[in-house]
Write a structure and sequence with these properties.
Layout (H helix, E strand, L loop, with lengths): L11 H17 L4 E17 L2 E19 L2 E7 L4 H17 L31 H16 L5 E20 L3 E20 L2 E11 L8 H13 L10 E7 L1 H14 L2 H5 L20 E3 L23 E4 L2 E2 L6 H6 L14 E3 L6 H8 L2 E8 L3 E2 L4 E12 L2 E14 H6 L1 E4 L9 E2 L3 E9 L2
Parallel strand pairs: 7-12, 11-17
Antiparallel strand pairs: 1-2, 1-4, 2-3, 4-5, 5-6, 7-18, 8-9, 8-11, 9-10, 12-14, 13-14, 14-15, 15-18, 16-18
Length: about 450
């Protein structure tokens, strides 16, 4: 194989040649089978602050993971140097590791008939043909508009414009090589507001595969300003029990915890409170959780998972009942089940939503807490115990009364899911998990 120049690597043919070379070299050095997972991306990011350019960063990266198998023994190495001699050295290291590891009866490539031969690349590649100069001008304009929204906004912590194009590659010695491109673009704005001795910080961002799906500069500026100013005058609450609404951008975390709890790794390690819960009721009847891996312009779209297995539109929860675990090949073998094409995670998770927007959900709740920010990592998946720092707004008579901060919300995920009263139609589309705001019947709110 000739040396592939770094600048020439962003090409499907070159990526396939490189993948095949690594796999062939693995077989030549004694591996019984092998697999390669590769990601390459390029782009740039600009950041401005208080009318000045703070940074311009270009990136052009690649990461390659190689796993070789010698029977049921395996060795894994990572590399970024793609010179032939470097690849041969990495393969030799992987084979040497495999030689000394214990046999694992569940290891090995996915069965050939499960692989995504004949896949179609998802429609998620939309390069943003914007120059660095134009991106800087856009960021400066956004910051200027944001600072002008309210006199209480006293400072900016930066506006960033980022664009990135990448290629995902998976190949193995069953003869499968899958490659697809994706793009991702983002504009973010973070501000500081001051009123008397009180200072608060907040932000807003927009991201998408396609630049024409990004919010306008005016929207980003307005949202960042409104979110920052409304936090002024925040106070603590008295400890109490009350209903809680998780705003849509934070609500996705609740579903993320659920997906972690039904993932194969958590299950075979017995580190999930949902072990042996297939067919059992977890949510109320109105909840349906499903994925759409082929969604055009979907931030989580993929034709195959990290095992090269073809993805599929799984339904994990129907009528509140857990229907499927999220499994890759290895975890499926450990659990004596079948892979669901979820090695590496879920692809565009959706939840059934109601017809109420956030304002209507507040009316339904009447009195309680609206959570707009969560802090800390107080989630114990083995038991389901949930305790996290939070800030947001206290609600009475269906209306926001004042901002709150320095509080903790606590419950157990099992109870939270069972008491999920409603999900709003205010869907936040800025991630792999899409949901509206979530109203829970009751949580403990710890304050003063």
């Amino acid at each position: 194989m000739n040396v592939i120049e770094k600048s020439a690597l962003f090409n499907t043919d070159k990526l396939q040649d490189l993948t095949n070379f690594i796999l062939q070299e693995s077989l030549q050095q004694g591996a019984s089978s092998a697999e390669v997972d590769m990601g390459v991306n390029k782009g740039f990011s600009v950041t401005v602050r208080m009318g000045e350019v703070e940074s311009v960063e270009y990136h052009q990266n690649k990461g390659i993971s190689l796993t070789v198998y010698q029977g049921k023994r395996c060795g894994t190495v990572s590399l970024s140097d793609i010179r032939p001699e470097a690849i041969r050295s990495a393969v030799a290291a992987a084979c040497n590791i495999a030689r000394y590891t214990d046999e694992d009866p569940y290891s090995g490539l996915a069965e050939k008939d499960l692989l995504a031969f004949g896949y179609e690349a998802p429609d998620i590649y939309f390069p943003w043909h914007i120059s660095v100069e134009d991106a800087i001008a856009m960021a400066l304009d956004c910051e200027k508009k944001a600072l002008a929204q309210d006199k209480r906004i006293c400072n900016s912590e930066g506006v960033s414009v980022t664009t990135s194009d990448g290629w995902s590659v998976y190949g193995n010695t069953h003869g499968f090589v899958g490659i697809f491109p994706a793009s991702r673009h983002e504009i973010s704005c973070m501000l500081i507001a001051k009123q008397g001795g009180d200072m608060q910080r907040d932000y807003y961002y927009t991201n998408a595969c396609a630049p024409d799906q990004l919010d306008t500069i005016q929207t980003v500026a307005l949202q960042a300003a409104e979110r920052t100013v409304r936090r002024l005058g925040a106070r603590r609450l008295q400890t109490c029990q009350a209903p809680v609404i998780f705003a849509a951008e934070e609500a996705r975390g609740l579903l993320g915890h659920f997906m972690s709890a039904i993932s194969g790794g958590s299950l075979y390690r017995k580190s999930s409170f949902l072990v042996d819960h297939l067919g059992k009721k977890i949510f109320p009847d109105h909840i349906r959780l499903f994925e759409q891996p082929y969604l055009a312009k979907g931030l989580g779209s993929s034709p195959f998972d990290d095992d090269g297995v073809a993805t599929r539109p799984n339904v994990f929860v129907e009528d509140g009942v857990l229907q499927l675990y999220a499994l890759g090949v290895y975890s499926a073998r450990k659990l004596n089940m079948q892979t669901t094409g979820n090695a590496g995670g879920v692809h565009n998770l959706f939840v059934s939503t109601g017809k109420k927007d956030l304002a209507a959900l507040l009316k339904t709740m009447n009195k309680g807490l609206l959570v707009t920010e969560l802090m800390g990592q107080g989630v114990h998946l083995t038991t389901g115990d949930y305790s996290r720092g939070a800030s947001g707004f206290w609600v009475e008579n269906g209306e926001i009364q004042y901002p709150v901060q320095e509080i903790t919300i606590a419950s157990n995920l099992r109870d939270m899911y069972a008491r999920l009263a409603e999900i709003g139609c205010d869907i936040d589309k800025r991630g792999n998990i899409q949901t509206g705001s979530i109203l829970l019947e009751n949580m403990t709110i710890a304050g003063e």
